[in-house]
């Protein structure tokens, strides 16, 4: 049996603590996301009754926050412990997951560009399902209001989409005060008003369509987002490149650690493992069920 001594098995402290410092921020961000998500759920009483999540037909934004928090917490923890303890399994798990997420993001971006009509239809269905649940969840309501105010839009393709919501529906069976109206986030803001008028959208759609644009936004949010993307293509590209560089940085650092760290301990299982032998020259010695190579 032959044994080889590795002359460079020491892990560089520079790469080790650089990766650790990078991941500690990542891990702390995951803790913050988890804390915010659990706090939001506790305020809504979801922690005492988890069926409230399943009863919501739209998406609960807190679920997205918790999912992001779990992923960041898990990867940050694996990266921190893997770098600090020089654990090759955790480092490979961390780097492999980061690379997988990067290629998934790249694949989604390419597919979204190639199948724009399909993405547009899915986004419309997603937006309409959340319009139906607008009053069922306060976080979803705030998210839709923020989207409509920021993009100066109303509904998926127009104010008529709010007929999908039972409170804003124009049918005769509705007794809601918001009947045939729109949320206040659809209203054209009045610079003279310092206090937001949450009733500005009442009965707006009972008027002639030609007068709608005087008081509310008539453009749908899908068209607004489609027009926003070409105007801000450089910002979107810059953010995507920055995120990509951050994601590529971690596997690059892991590449410096994994080959070196893998030489620290390599077990072998032969009949010599059971022989109480100690090599005086210091090349190897049996330890437990394997052979640890001394450096």
UniProtKB/TrEMBL annotation:
Main subcellular localisation: membrane
Record flagged with keyword Disulfide bond: yes
Entries under InterPro entries matching the protein: Tetraspanin/Peripherin (IPR018499), Tetraspanin_CS (IPR018503), Tetraspanin_EC2_sf (IPR008952)
GO CC list: plasma membrane
Organism superkingdom: Eukaryota
Membrane topology: Multi-pass membrane protein
Subcellular location, record wording: Cell membrane
SUPFAM superfamilies: Tetraspanin (SSF48652)
Record bears the keyword Cell membrane: yes
GO molecular function annotation: enzyme binding
Swiss-Prot/TrEMBL GO biological process terms: positive regulation of Notch signaling pathway; protein localization to plasma membrane; protein maturation
CDD domains in alphabetical order: TM4SF9_like_LEL
One protein family per Pfam: Tetraspanin
Keywords, comma-separated and alphabetical: Cell membrane, Disulfide bond, Glycoprotein, Membrane, Transmembrane, Transmembrane helix
Transmembrane residue ranges: 20-41, 62-84, 90-115
Family: Belongs to the tetraspanin (TM4SF) family.
Protein name in the entry: Tetraspanin 14
